[in-house]
Every structure is written in C-alpha cells, then in structure tokens.
Amino acid sequence: MGIVSWIVLGLIAGALAKFIMPGPQGGGIILTIILGIVGAMVGGFISTQLRGLGGISGLDLQSMAIAVGGAVLVLFAYGLLVQRGGSGG
Q1: pLDDT at residue 75 is higher than 80
Q2: Mean pLDDT, range 37-64, rounded to an integer
C-alpha cells in the first residue's frame, strides 16, 4: 500500500475508533490520522502474528476491521497516557 492509502485507511480507522470509543482524549484531525495509522500498523502486526488472520493488504473490509481494531487499542492506550499525565499533580 502506498502512503496515500495508509493516510486514507488511517483517517477512516481513526475516525471509526473515535466513534466507537469517544472520550476526552482531545486532539484534532491530524492526531486522529496519526493514531489511526499507528493503529492500522499495530492491528496489522497483531493479526499477522495470529495464524490465519492475515494482515492489511489494501482497502478492503478485512483490512479495515484490523485497522479499526488496532486504532481502538491505540486510542485506549493514548487515553490512559493522557489521563495519567493530566491528573498527576
């Protein structure tokens, strides 16, 4: 996949993850894209480690589900970091 495909997949995955898991994480569209791209890579890595799931191969339904799952995981971890950083004073 090219860089434009990763950005599009990351934007969609980040937006869907934010919709699935809303919260006070903050950040704008750029952060959503970055978290979505990182989530897509994390989801792809995890799915390739599990036998039979495959990885992210393009803009299809399986790749989108893997990317969104990874983005939700990354968004959850980011939320924990933001929460810990904001309340420790």
Answers
A1: yes
A2: 75
Does 69 reside within a domain?
yes
Separation between Cα atoms, residue 9 and residue 34, nearest integer Å: 11
Question: Is 89 inside a domain boundary?
Answer: no
59, 8 Cβ separation under 8 angstroms: yes
Alpha helical stretches, state H, the chain:
3-20, 29-49, 61-87
Residue 58's domain spans which residues? 3-83
Residues 74 and 58: their CA atoms lie apart, in Å, by: 20
Closest C-alpha among 38, 18, 20 to residue 28:
18
User: Can you give the pTM of this predicted structure?
Assistant: 0.73
